[in-house]
Amino acid sequence: MLKKNKKCIICSNPRLIKYLDLGKIALANSCLNKAGLKRPELKFPLRVYYCPACHLAQLKDWVDRKMLFEDYAYFTGASQPLHEHFRKYAEDVYRKFPTQTKQFILDIGSNDGILLKHFQKLGAKVLGVDPAKNVARIARRNGIETKALFFNLNVAKNIVKEYGHAGIITANNILAHTNNLHGIIAGVKKLLDEKGIFIFEVQYLGDLIKKNEFDNTYHEHICYFSLFPLVKLLDIWGLQIFDVERVDTQGGSIRVFAGHKPLLFPVNKRVLKMQNLEEENGLHNLKTYKKFGTVPQKIKKKLLKLLIGLKKQNKKIVGYGAAAKGNTLLQYCGIGTEIIDYIADTTAFKQGKFTPGTHIPILPPEHIKKNLPDYVLILAWNYASSIMKNESWLKNKNVKFIVPIPKVTII
Ligand SMILES: [Zn+2]
Prior knowledge:
It is a single chain. The protein is an alpha/beta fold. It has 2 domains: about 220 residues, Rossmann fold (3-Layer(aba) Sandwich), CATH 3.40.50; about 120 residues, Rossmann fold (3-Layer(aba) Sandwich), CATH 3.40.50.720. About 35% of the residues lie in helices and about 20% in strands. The strands form 4 sheets. Strands 8-7-6-9-10-13-12 form a 7-stranded mixed β-sheet, with helices on both faces. It has a 6-stranded mixed β-sheet with strand order 16-15-14-17-18-19. A 4-stranded antiparallel β-sheet has the order 2-3-4-11. The chain is globular, with a radius of gyration of 21 Å. The mean pLDDT is about 95. Bound molecules: zinc ion. The site of zinc ion (ZN) has 8 residues, from loops.
């Protein structure tokens, strides 16, 4: 179930250096049902390593992919802010690339079809590929043709035979979740039309480090990208990045645009500028990573001091958002039901379950009304502003919010 990788995923450098160690924890997306609470829970080391050769940050302890993704409990469509994000994404791509969007559009890791649905509305022919069978089934039910597979070169070859080449290939929050980067990019190279565009989003390591987002580390999240290693990876496969944009999903991400070499598009200045900025900001320097490795302990100390102090005053504390990052944070800090009564979450299939490792009940947000807390710890801090807006009535009831990242704050 656990594989120990020895070399850098992109450049095969064997000398990887550990900079972050969160100990042994349960898989962040594996919420438990009642029966699951009685069984022994599997825990795996969660450590992140830096490659000084290509600057990719990565896990070396790989949990079996089937265990992680075949019954994946993350539906992008369940998240309202993401809906809006992908609607704008589709419209933006449609406006910028009118020729390419006339051909079919393939989305790798298409989840419940959240992005493809918007492309379809605009008139595009679409196809999704996603390894999670349960999620692919839902996408198909929503009218999005979806293959329940891990995308790779072979899958790409079969798609070319059946559908021809794709004008646009998208892959959002997928590259970080794979140890088969070369397989995916080889497939993209094969499937992409000669004038086609490969567009992908990844969480941005520059933001993760700058904003202390250590809880964005979990076993599903194998690679942590700055722009530099992506340039290198695509170059190996004869692809080149011609533009990059900052987007604010997932605590700070980048949207990257690439095409076949030689490029048919001018390279935007932003591409070089971002790489230069990465070097200036220390992302090519081990010291930066080692310093980041000390962040979790500092946040843990502050957060526990605050929460334990509140419990001593008999304050009632609940969590908000049983997100993967929240499960990393709770497990690393050792926060369980002695501190948090329950976690409110709008996602229906998580409700009635328990958080991995810490076994805190997950309940619908309506529960807060019935059982008013004194404090709400926002675990899905990337949605903190929309959560506080949706639950603004709590302010009138004198309930306070605690946001743990980038630093422990009471609002
Ligand atoms: Zn490397």
